[in-house]
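Q: Got a minute? One more chain.
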Amino acid sequence: ALPYVYVVSGVLRGVYTLGDLALYAGLIFEVRRSLIFVIASMAQLYDIALGTSPIFQLLQLKPQLQMLHLEGGKNTNSTKPNLSNSEIQLKNVSFAYPGSDKKVLEDINLTIQPGEMIALVGENGAGKTTLAKLLCRLYDPQSGAIEWNGQDLRSFELDALRERIAVVTQDYARFPVAVRENIAFGELSQLDDNHAINCAAKEAGIAAVIERLPEGLDTILGKQLDGGVDLSGGQWQRIAIARALMRRSQAELLIFDEPTAALDPKTEHEIYTIFRAIAPEKITVIVSHRLALAKMADRIVVMENAKILEIGTHDELMLLGGQYSIMFNRQASSYV
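A: Always. Here it is, folded:
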């Protein structure tokens, strides 16, 4: 307002002409509009910085897990490990989460043979998911060791190890990108391989849904972006399963932690049948509360209070009449 007052007063005193008034009024308006634009842009940049700062903080994080160096400090397994057709052994493994003295796993001894499907069952808090996390080396045991092909997991380069593992958890990620990318994130080298993506989608039971989407594999998922299509919880879970299946060619360890919690029983059984079909040459670990599905496993590991309580096939554990038998009969009674 002050610039306008100054120019108008100058016109009244005869210092400026009416043409000068029009010129200066236009300049003042443009300067004001430019300042508003700059301030708005700075505010927008600030909002963007606030939104992206967690991403950069994440990228700057360094793994806290250390490699186990052998032979005079030189690691012998820094290249891609050869883990095909090899067993996994847990030797006296104990673990408590950082900041807690309560052991979540205590003196766990377990050998998983190549091509074997293991089901981890037990009540909440028994240590099933924690055991799966240790197999992925998200944490290291506080005592004992986990060996794969006779080598301590800590001796492998972390990225090379995790390339050999495919995981589906109950807390799956929903990326606001195209269907193609949501699935191919499991194996980025096949991002443009429609055949591989379609095969994974078909095996996960989501292919028919994708075919009905407006742009097929190129349909944007999620409501965050314009034109995005949202899926049901069960459909998102199948996308996550397809993502894991993309890695099955190089993965030697498949871990499924309640991956079908949002699926109906029929579809759930179909998914586990798929798991069974792709697992003969892989080590497969399934965490599930649904004991009817645990019957599909080669062996069932019953966990309670951070320890392994029972191990055996479904028939063996039912004949044993222990904790597994009690849990199975309790669940079965709900359907009678």
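A: Residues 51 and 57 are 11 Å apart (CA to CA).
Q: Perfect, thanks.
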